[in-house]
Amino acid sequence: MEKRIALELRGRNPSQIKELNLDNCRSTTIVGLTDEYINLEILSLNNAGLTTLKGFPTLPKLRKLELSDNRISHGLNFLNGCKKLTHLNLSGNKIANLETLKPLEEFENLKNLDLFNNEVTNIEDYRNRVFALHPSLKYLDGFDKEDGEAEDSSGEEEDEMNGNNDSEEEDLGIDLGPLIIDDDYSERTPEMTSSFLVSLYTVYGLLFHMGSLLKNSDVDDEEDDDLSLSAVYNTKLEEESSEGSLYEGSAEEEEEEEEDDEDGDGDNDADKPNSKAQAGKENSHGEPEESTRGKKRKHEDEDEN
């Protein structure tokens, strides 16, 4: 139990502790819990294996005490140092008779008592007798005198902690020391401070890394856009160059055809004299042979006449 208490303190002073949870901390007696916890308001010792409450410290501010599932059968008088106790849970213990509950008469502020799963609950007229024994009691085992279910105790606890409890109005302006927040930076240990700084730098580093990744992705997108635009531009240039080459090729072909036509005309002109020469050959006097033949035939006709 002492090791568990030291662990729950986390380097704080016992006078600063308002709530202490020691559930499942195996010990037959109270060990390590002292009167230094002057501001303790909530204490939980469920299933701790306690057989006696001997050595229970004086806790003047204690309002809620959880002692369920232990082996306590007597010794409730050791709780007399907790005069402001309003909630007491003793369910699952070994309380067998009403005599064991008599020390609770001194708790004038006791409102909620839980004795469920104890032998004392089997006593005849158990509920009425317990309510008669403790006039301040409002709820027993979760129900009031008319068997009405208990309200949520957390709301009542908050009201009491905020100073709304009528029975404690006289103490409201006396001591404000317990209202100091436990998480004061002045009470932080160097280890806690260093771990906080490491966590802060880690988060900052992650955010910076994510920002750089997003920036690089934007640059890559811009480069891809530039590449795509350049590719489109190059493709356009290639198409224009191919169209120009086709045009030049057709122009050259037209020029070649025109040159071929001119060559063809020249050849035809040159062939014309040859055809004339073939049609009629000239004689030695430069006259065509047909004309000389005509003349000879004319002279022969004249001679015959």
Write up this protein.
Helix 2 (126-133) links the parallel strand 5 and strand 6. This protein is 43% helix and 6% strand. Strands 1-2-3-4-5-6 form a 6-stranded parallel β-sheet, with helices on one face. The protein has 305 residues and is mainly alpha-helical. The protein contains 5 helices and 6 strands. It is elongated, with a radius of gyration of 60 Å.
Topology record:
Blueprint: H1 2-9, E1 19-21, E2 42-44, E3 64-66, E4 87-89, E5 112-114, H2 126-133, E6 139-140, H3 153-161, H4 190-279, H5 289-304
Parallel strand pairs: 1-2, 2-3, 3-4, 4-5, 5-6
Query: What is the typical, i.e. mean, pLDDT?
Result: 74
Estimated radius of gyration: 60 Å
> Mind summarizing the main beta sheet?
6 strands, parallel
Q: What general outline do the C-alpha atoms trace?
A: elongated
Broad structural category? mainly alpha
How many E-type strands? Answer: 6
Oligomer: single chain
Helix content: 40-55%
Order of helices and strands: HEEEEEHEHHH
Total helical segments = 5
- The order of strands across the largest sheet is 1-2-3-4-5-6
Determine the strand fraction and express it as a percent band: 5-15%
Low-confidence stretches: 158-174, 176-186, 266-292
Note the gap between the termini. 178 Å
Summarize the structure.
The chain has 305 residues and is mainly α. 43% of the residues lie in helices and 6% in strands.
Task: Write a concise keyword list for the protein shown above.
six-stranded parallel sheet; 6 strands; 5 helices; 305 residues; mainly alpha; elongated
